[in-house]
Amino acid sequence: MRWLLTVFSTMLLTANLGLSQESNDGKDSTALKTEILNEVIVNGSAILGSKFEAMNRTGSANYISAKELQKFSYNDINRILRNVPGVNIYEEDGFGLRPNISLRGTSPERSAKINLMEDGVLIAPAPYSAPAAYYFPTIGRMQAVEVLKGSSQVQYGPNTTGGAINMISTRIPDRFTGRATLSAGNFNSKNTQIVIGDSFKNFGFVSEYYNYNSDGFKNIDGGGNTGFDKSDYLAKFRMNTDEGAKVYQSLLFKIQFSEERANETYLGLTDADFNENPYRRYRASSEDVMDAEHQQYQLTHFLKLSQALSITTTGYVNKFKRNWYKLDDVNLGERVGINNVLADPETYAMEYNSLLGNTDTPEDVFGIKANNRRYTSQGIQSIARLRWGADWLQSLELGIRYHEDEEDRFQWVDRYGFQNNELIRTTVGIKGADANRISNAKAIAAHTLYKLNLGRFTLTPGIRYENITLGRINYGTNDATRSGTDLSERENQVDVWIPGIGANYTFTENLSVFGGVHKGFSPPGNTEGQDAESSINYELGTRFNYHGIQGEVVGYYNDYQNLLGSDLAATGGTGSLDQFNAGEVRVSGVEVSLNYNLLNNSSEKVRLPLTFNYTLTDTEFLSSFDSANAIFGEVSVGDEIPYIAKNQFNLNLGLKHKKFAVDLGARYIDAFRTQAGTGTIPTNLRVDSNFVVDMSGRYFYNSHFTFSFNIINLFDTTYAVSRVPAGLRPGHPFGVNFSITYGL
């Protein structure tokens, strides 16, 4: 830690030596302020900051702007990311509360193999020690979303195989701004957002309240709420020097708090019950609920020493606590997990019938587990950026981060039985008797990225370093007070260099080619000696504009030397989170993105923009192994990775006018297997393909009022989205919301 502080001090001292070398005297103050504020935005919270930057990376990158997010006003990150090629997702709750995101074929479970960030800071509950994303930021309050893949994301870790997603929260405006949005729809869904902010000469602020809730679209046998209620509170305060100062500085403090109560369950449906009524929920899930709270504190110092040199330093603390109280097993003489019951209801006929709650059961038949956990993620990171050169434009980025996180599990199981169609608790579990341990991680990460621009040619070599210590302290299930009478500990360390290089060549202003190669990495678990996930990843692509058709086509090949799987309850496992080696794997694919105005600028008043995105993902295990995890099972050479659709596309058609806008979005997802295998997918291990259409419309009444509607699943298509955590689960049925927005 001491040497880390020395590095920070050295960076700041080196920067300050250049204070007297350059001056902004004589420069237009308005232009300077705009430039400074843009620098703060880009360096403080964004990776890309604009579509222009995304289109000029030497690797794949996508920037989803505020205008694009407003098209459908989605609160579900799953639906937003469908517009990005190379993204594979399987849904779980229909509202995007806990998404499962894969970038370029990484394991999608709980988005654990990609970097999730908010305002440039890792946002998963414990990114190193327990990265499964049981918390996900409220996407409805975000101002932009950035997605990086390939060599574009070597700067961001610890996961460098698939990519990174950075969500940019509401920014401090440059003038007084107020906005209020009220929405209501079927399933008693409601949404409220209030934003107020302003900037002065040396001070700026923004505050935001965001709530969305619903009674849910599923129906519990016997009645009950299957929805959720989530509220977010955000405030940012910025102090800054005068805009014409020789050395510009700003200090930004961000505080965020959210609370959620979701009546969600791991219990799905058997195939027969899904075919009869996909929105049914068995009575045995009536007590299932998650209570969660999240806190974020972030302090960012921005120092612009000259037009060539700037340093951004951020300290952060994220805290998350949750207790997901949910049905886990059925015990009629032998404990059977709910996943096994629903996968084979004939073998476990007695257990299945007990889930229905139509008859009384003995006491203690059902185990409802209190998955009680607390997470802490904290650290400090600093990035210095230097630009120089005229004919040869060059830049250098140096970054360093010290990070600590931990997951504290203190879980128990209560036993229940049915009496008169009501689930009654018959035994109160002993707290800590199911799990009583702390997993932790300490990591020092550093990176450097050099960029050389020689006219038409751009080269970006970079390297990342990760030094990680992962540990676990297990107090045992008989030591609720954690006195240490039955203590066991283990530790694993990893030290790795992660190089990468990207290049871009511009033939004309309408045609360029880019490509790169980089090392893929994901941290191992805390089992001593366990290897990290590693791969070598290649990509080659082109960006073009041909007679108004703008597009990008990318091919990639990810060669895994060692793929890691995780034992998650969310995928039918035991929930230990222990990782296991899955051997050599090949993932390759093609990503296509096309944009075209059907009117081809023939009308200045009306536009008909058309967007098409296509993703081909091909996966293959190159080694055999056996796994107790339900989604892998017994794997043979040639098998495909489960929960990765081979083909998917998204088509958006818009009608734009200065007074109104209408958008129609259609997405297709190929059938995918739910267990590793090859050839024809067995019915009981398959999620069928689906084609879903959404629609939205906005009417700009005047400069203050906007009226809008949003329709999810326009044709009320019935479709399944997954077979995990336990049984088939449906996608969102027809849903409509009407909104009114007032803005200053």
Give structural notes:
This protein is mainly β and 744 residues long. The protein is 9% helix and 52% strand. The protein has eight helices and 41 strands. The strands form eight sheets. It has a 22-stranded antiparallel barrel. A five-stranded mixed beta sheet has the order 1-6-7-4-5. A hairpin with a 3-residue loop joins strand 9 (189-199) and strand 10. The longest helix has 16 residues, at 29-44. The two termini are 48 Å apart. Mean pLDDT is 91; it is low at 1-43.
Distance between the termini: 48 Å
Radius of gyration: 26 Å
Overall form: globular
Largest sheet geometry = 22 strands, antiparallel, barrel
What integer is the average pLDDT? 91
Give the oligomeric state: single chain
- Number of separate helices: 8
Subcellular location: Cell outer membrane
Family: Belongs to the TonB-dependent receptor family.
Organism: Flagellimonas yonaguniensis
Keywords: Cell outer membrane, Membrane, Receptor, TonB box, Transmembrane, Transmembrane beta strand, Transport
How are the elements arranged and paired?
Elements lengths: L1 H15 L12 H16 L6 H5 L5 E4 L1 H7 L4 H5 L5 E4 L9 E4 L11 E4 L2 E2 L19 E8 L13 E7 L7 E9 L3 E11 L3 E12 L4 E2 L7 E13 L7 E15 L8 H6 L3 E2 L7 E16 L4 E23 L3 E3 H6 L5 H8 L9 E23 L4 E27 L2 E6 L7 E20 L2 E18 L13 E21 L2 E12 L10 E14 L2 E14 L1 E3 L12 E3 L3 E13 L11 E13 L3 E2 L7 E2 L11 E10 L3 E10 L2 E2 L12 E2 L2 E11 L4 E8 L7 E3 L6 E2 L4 E9 L1
Parallel strand pairs: 4-7, 11-14
Antiparallel strand pairs: 1-6, 2-3, 4-5, 6-7, 8-9, 8-41, 9-10, 10-12, 12-13, 13-15, 15-16, 16-17, 16-18, 18-19, 19-20, 19-21, 21-22, 22-23, 23-24, 24-25, 25-26, 26-29, 27-28, 29-30, 30-33, 31-32, 33-34, 34-37, 35-36, 37-38, 38-41, 39-40
Protein name: TonB-dependent receptor
Membrane topology: Multi-pass membrane protein
InterPro entries: Beta-barrel_TonB (IPR000531), Beta-barrel_TonB_sf (IPR036942), Plug_dom (IPR012910), Plug_dom_sf (IPR037066), TonB-dep_rcpt-like (IPR039426)
